[in-house]
Amino acid sequence: MRSRFSAFAVGDEEYLLSSWHSSTRPRELDLDPGQRWTALEIIGKTRGGPFDTEGTVEFRAHYREGRTTGVLHENSTFTRENGNWLYVNGS
61: which of 6, 45, 74, 80 lies 20 to 30 Å off by Cα? Predict the structure, then answer.
């Protein structure tokens, strides 16, 4: 989760796509260059331990766009494939 937030913060589309599960991965991303991700709060998680194959992370990601600030609150689902955690979806 933290690595994906960092990738959003620096605009690393290649990493974001590679860390997205193939069943839900978009063909391309259109990141907004005017949006700055400023902080990540992990609220909670379920599973996702060393012996799990699935897990969720609830988080708040704070951003700034011009003079406006905002928060994205999401509960993301991840799955482990070949030893790597992949983002599946969020609600």
Answer: 80
